[in-house]
Structures are given as C-alpha cells and as structure tokens.
C-alpha cells in the first residue's frame, strides 16, 4: 500500500500567500492524503515577537493580541484544512522557531504556563493532532522535534546559511526534508564506506508572503512550494516539491489555481478530464 503525505511549510500566518495557500488546499481536497504535516512556523506569533520587544517597538504591537491570533489562525487555516482532510487522515503539527517564542515568554512569565502554549490554545490533542515542538526541553538538555516517514526524516529546519542543505546532510545521517529557510535546495552525500548508498537533504519552500515588511524590499531566495511524499513498502519513498508560481501549479497533469474560487476550480478540472 502506498501512503500519501503532504508537508506544509512556513505559513507564517497571518503573513500567508493567499493564492498559494488556496491552490494547496485545492490540491489536498483532490489528493486525499493519508497524512498531513504542518512543518513549523505555521503561525508567525506576532504578538510575542521577542525581537521587536527588545527593540522597544510599541507601534509594532498595536492591535496584536495572542488569543486573537490563535482564533484567526484556527478560523482561516486549521479548521478549513480539517474540513478537506479525509476522516482518518493522520494530522501532525510540528512547531517551528516562531511557535517556540511562546517558551521565551514563559521563561519571563512562568505563571502563564499551561494557558498560552500552541497545543493548549488550539486544543490540538482534542482535535486529533499530534504536537511535536521545535525543541523538547529536558533537564539541561534539548532535543529537536523530528518525525519519520519511512526512511525520510522531516523537521522544521536548523540551518540558514547559503548552503544549508549541504550542512544538513553533514549533520544528519538520514535523508531529510525540512522547512525554515523558505527556499528550495537539495544536496546529496555519499560516503566511502557505503559508496553505493547516499542520503539527501531538501528544503521545500514556504507558503508565506515572499516579500515581508521586515525585509524592506531586499532580495531573497524564497519560493512558494510544499512537499508531497509517496511512501512505499520498506520505508522507501518519493518526494516531490511542486513550485507555486502566481498562485498556480501543475501536479499529475492537473492545474491547481489559487486565483479561482472553488466552483470555478472544480468546473475547470472536470473540463480538463474530458
């Protein structure tokens, strides 16, 4: 049996690319995955941005409230996503460094513990979501949040240097798919002791706005994209990374267009099947 999995990287809600997200949701409704994974930084967590707090920027925080951010993310992303997933679809939310900002706040305000964490505020367990934090905190020890899909290891991401995929293959001993960098990059590593084998590391883009305010128009390598995994027997897999250009992409001969409403999209797809 082939297991179908969709990886959704870096929404940075509310700073999403709406047409890209619409196209991906259209794809999910058609693809009917067996598993879906929010691969970190699904929320930007603007109201607890410790970088802006350290700068003392009061204007940045005008009108920003954490509970409202949770409510809006649920309304605009989480609930609509749940509505289009198959009934028995495995759901995973992996925290990213932005979700981890909550822990920075709890270090300063420990009395809020158990009230404002992502998994608590969104009731993930009650809704059937597996929550995997970006970092698992122990007694003076830290463990990165990871998940296996067969022989493929997925996580939010660790490095942001120019050749981050090469760095990831050097650090990890297994093939990886990750988010965090917002770009697409692939590197393959072979070793002398196993010259017929190899492992890879691939970043899979983002679903956020590729021209954020804080970059002030500076160039970047960000690409709207996401990951599709076909998991086969023995843990073998194929990973595909559809690139979304102006809200559109093609997969398996079908066009998914985030610029169209749902009715027009369904009509176009039916016409293309004739």
Task: Provide a quick synopsis of the model.
The protein is α/β, with parallel strands linked by helices.
Description:
- 26% of the residues lie in helices and 26% in strands.
- Strands 4-3-2-1-12-13 form a six-stranded mixed β-sheet, with no helix packed on it. The chain has a five-stranded mixed β-sheet with strand order 7-8-9-11-10, with helices on one face. A two-stranded antiparallel sheet has the order 5-6.
- A hairpin with a 2-residue loop joins β7 (147-149) and β8 (152-155).
- It is α/β, with parallel strands linked by helices and 274 residues long.
- It has one domain (3-243): Purple Acid Phosphatase, chain A, domain 2 (4-Layer Sandwich), CATH 3.60.21.10.
- The protein has seven helices and 15 strands.
- The protein is globular, with a radius of gyration of 19 Å.
Overall structural class, as computed from helix and strand content, comes to alpha/beta
CATH architectural category: 4-Layer Sandwich
- Average pLDDT confidence is 92
* Helix content percent band: 25-40%
> Strand fraction band?
25-35%
At the fourth level of CATH, the homologous superfamily is Metallo-dependent phosphatases
Radius of gyration: 19 Å
What gross morphology would you assign? globular
As laid out across the biggest beta sheet, the strand order is 4-3-2-1-12-13
